[in-house]
Amino acid sequence: MKKTISIIAMATLCLFFSAPSHAQSIASTFKPVKIGGRIPDVTLTNVCNYETTKTNLSDFKAKLIILYFWATSCTSCLVNSPKTEELQKQYGGEVQFIKVTNQPRTEVLPFLKELYKPDPSAIPVVTDDSALHQLFPHIHMPHYVWLDQTGKVVATTTAEQLTVENIDRFLSNDNIGNMRMKVDTDNTKSLTSVLKKK
Asked: Which Gene3D superfamilies match (predicted)?
């Protein structure tokens, strides 16, 4: 019993000390972009459900591009997936949703194939992503980033703001009105530690 506990303790310590070094070994090539800023013309690789597996973000000519950050383990993402599909079909070329995940293609494609078995998805999917996650860091999903044609970030929202009314408002006058912006909070940190930093 003692041997089992010591093995578990050693394994936990190894994971604890190896995680930061792994995170540091990944070079950060993109700085986060805030609302009002413009993103660089990122080359998207590992693109599925699209005419090519590699493309630039500027190749999408829609008036509104919505990056949809999700994961196969995110229940809320799966619940909101049909709504996203409906909106993509409704708006056609005016709005372009792009699903983005940092999960590997080998994990994501079988999952999506099963999820959309009766009715295939109309939305391109970027797998194995690091660039867009660096540009738009977030904690909670689904996480939606709204971009205009020029690559300017106009909003970051939850699924609640993903409505026909909000999309129509943007398409008619390039304005999102007083749409509530998503603010991620890290629940692992205590409120006092967050306040001390301010």
From this structure: Glutaredoxin
